[in-house]
Design brief:
Elements: H1 5-14, E1 23-24, H2 25-31, H3 38-46, E2 59-60, H4 74-84
């Protein structure tokens, strides 16, 4: 994968999130040992050129809202992908 060292760390973690499950940007930041980097995690998700193979759609905001999705279709596509994987809102 081509990206910064931080982006690659985030993207490698995203691959580990099972279908039908979600994590928050903060949970991802903590998991990669960068607990104060939730915003940077969100930016790395937004720059993910490998979606949906690298499933950035499985990362949501701490308040339970979807957050953004930079792939074609935006948040509607994110919601559709999550529903397809069995995640219920």
């Amino acid at each position: 994968m081509q990206g910064t060292k931080f982006q690659n760390k985030v993207w490698r973690y995203l691959i580990k999130i099972p279908k039908g499950k979600v994590k928050t940007y903060k949970q991802v930041a903590i998991a990669i040992n960068r607990p104060k980097s939730a915003r940077a995690v969100a930016n790395a998700c937004g720059k993910n050129p490998y979606a949906p193979r690298v499933p950035c759609h499985r990362v949501i905001r701490s308040d339970g809202s979807l957050g953004g999705f930079s792939s074609a279709g935006g948040t509607k596509a994110k919601k559709r992908l999550l529903k397809k994987e069995g995640f219920s809102f």
